[in-house]
Amino acid sequence: MPMSQEKLSMILDKVEELKRFLPQISFFGSHNNDVSGNHIYNSHNIHHGFDVKSGENSKYVYTVRSAIDTYDGSFSPVLESCYEVLNCIGKNVLFSHNVVESHDVMYSEFCYNSSDLFGCLGLRNKSYCIFNKQYTKEDYIILRDRIISLLKEKGEYGSFFPIWMSPFAYNESIINEYINKDEKDALEEGYKWKYDLPFTQGQGTIEYSSIPASPSDYDESLTKEIFTCTSCTKNYKLISREIAFYKRMNIVIPSECFNCRHQKRMFSRLPRTLYEATCANCKKSINTSYDKEKQQLYRIYCESCYQQEMV
Fold first, then answer.
1. Is 90 exceeded by the pLDDT of residue 65?
2. Where do runs of H (alpha helix) occur along the chain?
3. pTM here?
4. Confidence of residue 72 (pLDDT cuts 50, 70, 90)
5. CA distance readout (Å), 229 to 73, 203, 224, 254
6. Is residue 22 helix, strand or coil?
7. 31: part of which helix (H) or strand (E)?
8. Which of 20, 53, 86, 114 has the most CB atoms lying inside 10 A of its own CB?
9. Residue 242 CB neighbours (<10 A)
């Protein structure tokens, strides 16, 4: 029998029943010492970290493979001695975005295999540059320090690029998957909001009830159809590889578009926030990503109690 939407919903309901019956660990991770956050592995002294594969002596790091002596770094494979960076790989990188395989870089973006840059954009294999202009090492240091002093006098030194410089609106960026805001809140905080996001509605060519009931009957003709999402009513299409996957796995075609399904998956994850809690077993104070409401639904155990009872 194919995996229908009804069967999938039943399975998810059973999973939820088990979660409420069995103890839940306060955070996911292993091989750690002195850490706080969620999904942390092979780390020491990592706090408010989320999705960290390894690291030490870092705080507010999110989705990083390795973070050492870093504060406030996100979506970056390898960071060492970095501060307020996004999508970076490097050492001593400050207030920068998409700086890769570089070191001693500040206020720069889309620079690669470079060092000693300040306020640069799109450079490769460069050193001792300010605003993309080449200097000698001595002149670079003098001018860089002079600029930093002026920025400090104005109180403008020490932070990531301001919100108004973002080329993307809040509702078209990945941040919505982690911190969901509506239009009103986003605009009040200074973000842009895009009103003409590309999508179509009302162009469906097939009703969901008309799709073959058995995945074994799926064929390439379905790639020519336009489907209508049962949640947002926007149109979506399927490609050959999707049809082949559903057919091979004996799963019915989803009734929702990719964006709605992806949003449900992301919202089913615990938030990247820490809440105070008490271990339901030993009563020790702990931090967890389970909010106060979920703490009433589940028995949240500290790592030690969970391992003693469940492992």
1. yes
2. 5-21, 137-153, 183-188, 240-249, 258-268, 292-297, 303-310
3. 0.86
4. very high
5. 36, 11, 16, 9
6. coil
7. strand 29-68
8. 114
9. 16
Which tokens hold the place of 199? 């999508």
**Rounded to the nearest 5°, which phi and psi values hold at 234?**
-80, 155
DSSP codes, 36-71: EEEEEEEEEEEEEEEEEEEEEEEEEEEEEEEEES-E
One-letter identity of residue 228: T
The residue type of 217 is D
Which of these, 178, 176, 216, lies nearest to 197 by C-alpha position? 176
In the 8-state DSSP scheme, what is residue 98?
E
Question: What is the rounded CA–CA span in Å between residue 305 and residue 205?
Answer: 55
Mean pLDDT of 282-306: 94
CA 160/CA 266 separation, integer angstroms: 26
Enumerate the β-bridge partners of residue 58.
46
Confirm if 69 and 60 have CB atoms less than 8 A apart.
no
**What pLDDT, in 10s, does the model give residues 258-293?**
999 998 888 888 999 999 999 999 999 999 999 999
Put residue 153 in one of left, alpha, beta given phi > 0 → left and psi -120 to 50 → alpha. alpha
CB 75 within 8 A of CB 86: yes
pLDDT digit string, tens, across residues 210-238: 999 899 999 999 999 999 999 999 999 99
Q: What average pLDDT does the chain have?
A: 94
Please provide the DSSP assignment of 278-311 as one string. E-TTT--EEEESS-HHHHHHS-EE-HHHHHHHH-
pLDDT in tens, 185-217: 999 999 999 999 899 999 999 998 899 989 999
Backbone angles phi, psi at 16, to 5 degrees: -65, -40
Which among 149, 148, 146, 121 is positioned nearest to 133, based on CA atoms?
Answer: 121
Query: Whole-angstrom Cα distance, residue 53 to residue 39?
Result: 8
How high is the pLDDT of residue 53?
97
